[in-house]
Amino acid sequence: NLVVTNTGNEPLSSVSVSDPNAVLGACAPITLPGTLNIGESTTCPATHVVTAADVEAGEVHNSATTTGQPPTPPGGPTPPPLTPPPSTVDTPIEQDPSLAIVKTETSTGPYSLGDTITYSLVATNNGDVTLTNVSISDPNATIGACTPAQPTSLGPNATLTCTATHVVTAADVEAGQVINTASTTGQPPTPPGGPTPPPLTPPPSTVDVPVEQHPSLTLAKTVTSSAPYTAGD
Known about the structure:
There is one protein chain. By secondary structure, the chain is mainly β. Helix content is 5%, strand content 42%. The protein has 2 helices and 16 strands. A 4-stranded antiparallel β-sheet has the order 4-2-7-8. A 4-stranded antiparallel β-sheet has the order 9-10-14-12, with no helix packed on it. A 4-stranded antiparallel β-sheet has the order 13-11-15-16. The longest helix is centred in the N-terminal third of the chain and has 6 residues, at 52-57. The radius of gyration is 37 Å and the shape is rod-shaped. The N and C termini lie far apart (118 Å). The relative contact order is 0.15. The model has no long low-confidence stretch (mean pLDDT 94).
């Protein structure tokens, strides 16, 4: 509500109120623009629908102003309109930062020793504020090109996509699989008045890729002595 009051000692005409960041309703009991006699007040309702920009800022900064015309004294001149300091309300808005990562295998097996497995790593900002310093890591793979280049800033619903590769090792063959886990992190904004929140570290995404094993065993028997042989040799 915006309450306009004539706190002076003479009536004011052409009294109006404005709020550029809100939608004003009908003022009562006195409709504005109008006249306010000494001590009179009128109340104007106002509404604001929270926007994505408000969420990003962490608050709604809202200022209302009013103006009114004093009477012209006998003999003039007409005084300028009254423009008192605005009244400001800062309303905090909840932020819901969120980040997730999905790792998928993009090559096709079967794989054996020396083969290359390729992956796609996608980090998604599924919250409602921009995250900074977003990056992806994968200790058991080599990360290639990322779009956009990491670290980066991601707005809501934006993604960071990286390719990654892993060359099958003897240890992978021994284990019968490649266990590969990718992680992501990102920094939420600091809300008005702080404090700075900790970085987001969502659960990692893991892909287990089977590796072919080829167990084999042979036996070869050879004669190591020299012929000819006779009884008792």
